[in-house]
Amino acid sequence: MSNGSDPAAVLAALDRAQDAFEMVGRGRTAFEAYALAMTNDTLQDFQDHQFSYERAHQIGLFERETAEAMKDLYSENRTESYYGGGRPTQEQAEAMTDLASAVHQFAVSQIREGGVCLCD
């Protein structure tokens, strides 16, 4: 759980992803496994994408500011990515991959119960 300071790798990846989307036409993360392991949440609770970010803070995974920045990154870019026909640039795709990897690595390291990660 967060000890008052989120990990530098996650914050750096978040900054890079935010920077990549500042240009017009310039990709999303999941924390569900950690939340499922640490709470009584179900996958259905995460149908609202905004819930993932709020829950990440509520369960102590990230500080409010970090969770809000992730939620803002998603909110500010989802319409163009989903409905506007915009395609992510290589920079955006790489930034989002880096962010997702950093969040995943951090979240998995925080899980007290095994068996929730299906990655290699």
Describe the protein.
There is one protein chain. This protein has helices at 8-20, 32-38, 49-58, 64-82, 90-110. The chain has 120 residues and is mainly alpha-helical. The protein has one domain (8-110). It is globular, with a radius of gyration of 14 Å. Residues 24-30 have low confidence and may be disordered.
Quick description:
By secondary structure, the chain is mainly alpha-helical.
List strands and helices in order, with pairings.
Blueprint: H1 8-20, H2 32-38, H3 49-58, H4 64-82, H5 90-110
Helix pairs in contact: 1-4, 1-5, 3-4
Coarse morphology: globular
Q: What count of domains describes the coordinates?
A: 1
Main beta-sheet annotation: none
**Terminus-to-terminus distance:** 23 Å
Determine the strand fraction and express it as a percent band. under 5%
Low-confidence stretches: 24-30
What is the helix content?
55-70%
Individual helix count: 5
Mean pLDDT across all amino acids = 76
Give me the strand/helix succession. Answer: HHHHH
User: Pairing-aware structural class of the strands and helices?
Assistant: mainly alpha
Whole-angstrom Rg? 14 Å
Count of DSSP strands: 0
